[in-house]
Amino acid sequence: MFRYFIQLAYNGSNFHGWQIQPNADTVQERLNMAVSMLLSEKINVTGAGRTDTGVHASFFVAHFDVETAIENTDVFVYKLNQILLADIRVDNVFRVDNEMHSRFNALSRTYHYFFSYEKEPFVDNFSVFIPSRLDVEKMNKAAAVMFNHSDFTSFSKLHTDVKTNNCNVYKAHWRLNNEMLIFEIEADRFLRNMVRAIVGSLIMVGRGKISIADFEQIILEKDRGKAGASVKAKGLFLTDISYPETVSKHFRIKPFVPCL
User: Fold this and answer.
1) Which residue among the candidates 52, 91, 97, 124 is catalytic per the annotation?
2) Read out DSSP for the chain?
3) pLDDT digits over 85-112, tens only?
4) Is 161 a catalytic residue?
5) I want to staple 61 with a disulfide (CB 3.0 to 4.6 A). Which of 48, 130, 157, 191 is the partner?
6) Structure confidence by residue, pLDDT tens digits, 198-211
7) Which of the following CATH numbers is that of domain 108-238: 3.30.1360.70, 3.30.70.660, 3.40.50.300, 3.40.50.720?
């Protein structure tokens, strides 16, 4: 048995997320079909995580096992991209140790969320128009509060099947690039809907509807009903997944999303 990692990117606009589900078009299902067709073997691709309906990934990692080694991975990548539609791009496929797992061996994940202060038709599918200016400095101070906490139940979708709602947030920062307002967050793991709920709550801080202390109290309450509404999926990108050097050295860096 041979195990391979696959690096890919996808526009999530027309997908019901990464994970296979009944009567819905998903990235995992499309990839399974393409890889199985090329290898003439039923292949189940395992992702590093799951993205929700409409969420994009400029950097995503998955793995699969196959009975016979792939003779030329560059040719394999080329053929995969010929089969897959334009909304999925495979960047690389490479052999790893059979014990290496795309999900469990990931060290951290990074997401970016994009708002635009201008009505911009060329990035509308990848950002959310927000006409009023926000207090970025105040939002950054509120975001930094998360470094002091680990239980993010207040930002989790209800009734999920995870064993713990604890996460370690390593980075959380807002910045302005021309008329694009960008939020970046990195953590060892994320809960379902977590980033979109955090962004929705921080927007309340930026609009002056709640204080920094109120934001921290939302975390302490451990109650999803206390947090702000989730922002739209279309502005959210999974942009990086970090791995040990033995794996990360194989990744091919591609240009980032057009919002930058």
Assistant:
1) 52
2) -EEEEEEEEE-GGGSS-SS--TTS--HHHHHHHHHHHHHTS---PEESS---TT-EEEEEEEEEEESS--S-HHHHHHHHHHHS-TTEEEEEEEEE-TT--TTTT--EEEEEEEEESS--TTSGGGSEE--S---HHHHHHHHHGGGG--B-GGGSPTT---S--B--EEEEEEEEETTEEEEEEEES---TTHHHHHHHHHHHHHTTSS-HHHHHHHHHHT-GGGSPPPPPGGGEEEEEEE--HHHHTT-------TT-
3) 999 999 999 999 999 999 999 999 999 9
4) no
5) 48
6) 999 999 999 999 99
7) 3.30.70.660
